[in-house]
Amino acid sequence: MNIKPLADRVVVKLIEAEEKTKTGIFLTASAQEKPQVAEVVAVGPGAHTDDGKLIPMDVKVGDKVITSKYSGTEVKVDGVEYTIVKQGDILAVVE
Question: Which residue of 30, 59, 80, 89 has the fewest CB atoms within a 10 Å radius of its CB?
Answer without folding.
Answer: 30
